[in-house]
Design goal:
Order of helices and strands: EHHHHHE
Structural class: mainly alpha
Largest sheet: 2 strands, antiparallel
Shape: globular
Helix content: 40-55%
Strand content: 5-15%
Strand order of the largest sheet: 1-2
């Protein structure tokens, strides 16, 4: 049996709403493929790219802890 260690949640969708940007605008400002932005918005990634995270934080004017949140295994996800 595999032990649950929790997971990382990427809050890109929420940050985009706060900043009044859409995914296409972010993809242009961060020089990223829109599909890659979409994957980050949907938490549909398996490996984090530190360069991409730096680009996102720079463009959004946020800190890494605003973008990525650790959800412990015993904590229920807010849906």
């Amino acid at each position: 049996m595999e032990e649950d260690y929790g997971h990382l949640e990427i809050r890109l969708r929420e940050l985009l709403e706060e900043k009044g940007l859409n995914r296409y605008q972010l993809s242009l400002k961060a020089a990223m493929n829109w599909k890659q932005v979409d994957h980050y918005c949907n938490n549909d990634i398996t490996r984090l790219d530190t360069f991409v995270l730096c680009k996102l934080c720079t463009v959004l004017g946020c800190r890494i802890q605003d973008l990525i949140v650790f959800v412990p295994a015993d904590k229920k996800e807010d849906s």
